[in-house]
């Protein structure tokens, strides 16, 4: 059964690598926002696991998972905000980045 899980993990890693490698650069920001959503789901899962922890070791691992999940989600939102700020322009009607008018 462990080989089955290893096979699923390797298949998911390979598929994820191939999908991400083919995403155009202009879609990286929305993709990052989507991954922030997934990190939020991971955070909720870690909180549920912490709520069901019985031993002190399980509680410590659950607390560490919640801490890392929260830091990862918050950091992702900060990075996304900084990336979106790169696309804002100071002048009305002017593209924020050179060549941005060709992307539409």
TrEMBL record:
InterPro entries: NADP_transhyd_a_C
E.C. number: 7.1.1.1
A biological process term (GO) from this entry: NADPH regeneration
Record keywords: Cell inner membrane, Cell membrane, Membrane, NAD, NADP, Oxidoreductase, Translocase, Transmembrane, Transmembrane helix
Main location: membrane
Subcellular location: Cell inner membrane
Keyword Cell membrane part of the UniProt annotation: yes
Keyword Cell inner membrane: yes
Transmembrane segments: 6-25, 37-54, 60-79
Any single Gene Ontology cellular-component annotation: plasma membrane
One Pfam family in the UniProt entry: PNTB_4TM
Mode of membrane association: Multi-pass membrane protein
Domain NAD(P) transhydrogenase alpha subunit C-terminal: 6-88
GO MF term set: NADP binding; oxidoreductase activity; proton-translocating NAD(P)+ transhydrogenase activity
Catalytic activity: NAD(+) + NADPH + H(+)(in) = NADH + NADP(+) + H(+)(out)
Biological role: The transhydrogenation between NADH and NADP is coupled to respiration and ATP hydrolysis and functions as a proton pump across the membrane.
PANTHER family: NAD(P) TRANSHYDROGENASE, PROTON-TRANSLOCATING NAD(P)(+) TRANSHYDROGENASE
Protein name per the record: proton-translocating NAD(P)(+) transhydrogenase
Organism: Deinococcus metalli
């Amino acid at each position: 059964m462990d080989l089955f899980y290893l096979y699923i993990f390797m298949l998911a890693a390979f598929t994820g690598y191939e999908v991400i490698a083919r995403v155009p650069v202009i879609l990286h920001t929305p993709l990052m926002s989507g991954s922030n959503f997934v990190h939020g789901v991971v955070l909720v899962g870690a909180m549920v696991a912490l709520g069901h922890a019985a031993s002190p070791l399980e509680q410590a691992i659950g607390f560490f998972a919640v801490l890392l999940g929260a830091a990862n989600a918050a950091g992702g939102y900060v990075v996304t905000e900084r990336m979106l700020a790169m696309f804002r322009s100071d002048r009305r009607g002017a593209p924020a980045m050179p060549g941005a008018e060709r992307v539409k």
